[in-house]
Amino acid sequence: MLRWLLSRAAGDPRLAELAATSPLVRPLVDRFVAGDTLEDGLRAATELAAVGATLTLDHVGEYVTDEQDADAAAGAYRDLLARSAEEQLPAGISVKPTQLGLLLDRPGCKARVADLAARAAEADAHVTLDMEDHTVTEATVRLVEQAHADGATNVGCALQSALHRTPEDVRRLTRLGAGIRLCKGAYAEPAHVAWQRRVEVDRAYLEAARYLLREATYPRFATHDHRLVAAIKREAAVLGRARDSYEFQMLYGVRDDLQRTLVGDGYRLCVYVPYGTEWFPYVVRRLAERPANLAFFLRALTSG
Ligand code: FAD
């Protein structure tokens, strides 16, 4: 219920404006978002690279409602790729298909993905399509398939263990050789498409992770759940997988302690670094993941 309410709040422009103008909300935003500008994102990325992490950068934004905004988002990612290459950062990009116009014009969105993939390939960088709500899952998986059909093998996507369809998507994209980021899923989804209980989502995660460890070339495990992290390490060791043949991924500002431990122990860690001004829905999803964050946010919003 809380997740559902928050998912409604995430799309409310009035709340976004209220949050943007409340100075008291800023400390919470700063925890999860590197800053408003590309330079802020690059600064955070440089610091993380210095301690041994790789990066995937997200110029925040989603569900754009006109072509101009989709073009502007693609332009922001072009600038990001150029600057990241200049700085020689070990960084890829994470981009939301609806930010590139998926809901407006699919061929246009596909062309933007192709352009970004080609530019990323020049810097040997990976492009991950973030997975959004279940109504765009099939379209997102198809974008990855189309990119591969056109030779852009550096394009992959996130898959959410919460969704019933995910085991099939995991097999489908593994057969293709596409990079998969396995996550639990940050969207409030209905029972006819998604597991509702944490224990079911976690069980599905572990099953998909086991499949990926057996079958995929380079799986990416996006979770801060220390039990899953431990299970994946154990399973990988049993299968004799080298530590550089898979990676963990975590979000900027979440479980920094676990991030440091993984790097210190010689595991690969990729940190997801969001930046930009359209941070409201991203931050609301982070709040939904942890009610303790939410209480702080609501206090700040109502007294701001
Ligand atoms: P949980 O059981 O939720 O959390 C485990 C522990 O991590 C918690 O006990 C807490 O200590 C800590 N923690 C987790 N979240 C927070 C938080 N917000 N604030 C503070 N502490 C926290 N979801 C999508 O739907 N699509 C995507 O494309 C996508 N990409 C992602 C990329 C990366 C790199 C990561 C790490 C996550 C991504 N997610 C995405 C979000 C993901 O689906 C989960 O919602 C999120 O990671 C929380 O699940 P968890 O696996 O960390 O486990």
From TrEMBL:
<keyword id="KW-0560">Oxidoreductase</keyword>
<dbReference type="InterPro" id="IPR029041">
    <property type="entry name" value="FAD-linked_oxidoreductase-like"/>
</dbReference>
<feature type="binding site">
    <location>
        <begin position="184"/>
        <end position="186"/>
    </location>
    <ligand>
        <name>FAD</name>
    </ligand>
</feature>
<dbReference type="InterPro" id="IPR002872">
    <property type="entry name" value="Proline_DH_dom"/>
</dbReference>
<dbReference type="GO" id="GO:0000166">
    <property type="term" value="F:nucleotide binding"/>
</dbReference>
<dbReference type="GO" id="GO:0004657">
    <property type="term" value="F:proline dehydrogenase activity"/>
</dbReference>
<dbReference type="InterPro" id="IPR008219">
    <property type="entry name" value="PRODH_bac_arc"/>
</dbReference>
<comment type="pathway">
    <text>Amino-acid degradation; L-proline degradation into L-glutamate; L-glutamate from L-proline: step 1/2.</text>
</comment>
<feature type="binding site">
    <location>
        <position position="285"/>
    </location>
    <ligand>
        <name>substrate</name>
    </ligand>
</feature>
<dbReference type="Pfam" id="PF01619">
    <property type="entry name" value="Pro_dh"/>
</dbReference>
<keyword id="KW-0642">Proline metabolism</keyword>
<dbReference type="GO" id="GO:0010133">
    <property type="term" value="P:L-proline catabolic process to L-glutamate"/>
</dbReference>
<feature type="binding site">
    <location>
        <begin position="223"/>
        <end position="224"/>
    </location>
    <ligand>
        <name>FAD</name>
    </ligand>
</feature>
<feature type="domain" description="Proline dehydrogenase">
    <location>
        <begin position="43"/>
        <end position="296"/>
    </location>
</feature>
<keyword id="KW-0285">Flavoprotein</keyword>
<feature type="binding site">
    <location>
        <position position="131"/>
    </location>
    <ligand>
        <name>FAD</name>
    </ligand>
</feature>
<feature type="binding site">
    <location>
        <position position="160"/>
    </location>
    <ligand>
        <name>FAD</name>
    </ligand>
</feature>
<keyword id="KW-0274">FAD</keyword>
<feature type="binding site">
    <location>
        <position position="96"/>
    </location>
    <ligand>
        <name>substrate</name>
    </ligand>
</feature>
<protein>
    <recommendedName>
        <fullName>proline dehydrogenase</fullName>
        <ecNumber>1.5.5.2</ecNumber>
    </recommendedName>
</protein>
<feature type="binding site">
    <location>
        <position position="286"/>
    </location>
    <ligand>
        <name>substrate</name>
    </ligand>
</feature>
<dbReference type="InterPro" id="IPR015659">
    <property type="entry name" value="Proline_oxidase"/>
</dbReference>
<keyword id="KW-0547">Nucleotide-binding</keyword>
